[in-house]
């Protein structure tokens, strides 16, 4: 996806995510002007504790990193290379075994070098979140603007 092509997360995930997200099975759900929802399907190989069947925290963090990144690119209107500067995740409860985890990421402010994001993960009920995230991304180029 070139810097001149308008960013479209649906198109990005149309043939399946690539790289780390593809290995995890992350897929597209929905988006708006500055937010994106992605899905992490339940897979046995992502279980962190075999006794409980609960997904490991790493794949959920990866889901939220991608969902919030997409929020930045949607707000900008184009794909822009950036680095995760900080992504804090507060786990509120374990994901329910067998359920897909939904990650909602939003970009609420962009300065010349930094994009500010927030989001939440749930497994079917947004009013019963698994986790909340807040973070920042830094432009690795000449800046966002």
Describe this structure in words.
Strand 1 and strand 2 form a beta hairpin. The protein starts with 8 loop residues before the first helix and ends in a 6-residue tail after the last strand. The chain is built from three helices and eight strands; from the N terminus they run H-H-E-E-E-E-H-E-E-E-E. Strands 1-2-6-7-8-5 form a six-stranded antiparallel β-sheet. A two-stranded antiparallel sheet has the order 3-4. 21% of the residues lie in helices and 37% in strands. The model has no long low-confidence stretch (mean pLDDT 93). The protein has a single domain, classed as Hotdog Thioesterase (Thiol Ester Dehydrase, Chain A). The protein has helices at 9-12, 19-24, 57-76; strands spanning 27-31, 35-40, 47-49, 54-55, 82-91, 101-110, 114-122, 131-139. It has 145 residues and is of the alpha+beta class.
């Amino acid at each position: 996806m070139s810097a001149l092509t308008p960013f479209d997360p649906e198109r990005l995930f149309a043939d399946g995510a690539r790289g780390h997200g593809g290995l995890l099975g992350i897929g597209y759900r929905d988006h708006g002007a500055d937010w994106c929802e992605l899905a992490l399907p339940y897979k046995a190989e992502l279980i962190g504790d075999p006794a409980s069947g609960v997904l490991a925290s790493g794949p959920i963090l990866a889901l939220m990193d991608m969902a919030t990144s997409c929020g930045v690119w949607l707000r900008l209107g184009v794909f822009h290379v950036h680095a995760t500067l900080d992504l804090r995740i507060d786990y509120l409860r374990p994901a329910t075994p067998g359920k897909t985890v939904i990650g909602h990421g939003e970009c609420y402010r962009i300065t010349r070098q930094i994009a500010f994001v927030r989001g939440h993960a749930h497994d079917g009920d947004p009013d019963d979140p698994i986790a909340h995230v807040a973070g920042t991304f830094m432009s690795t180029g000449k800046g966002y603007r």
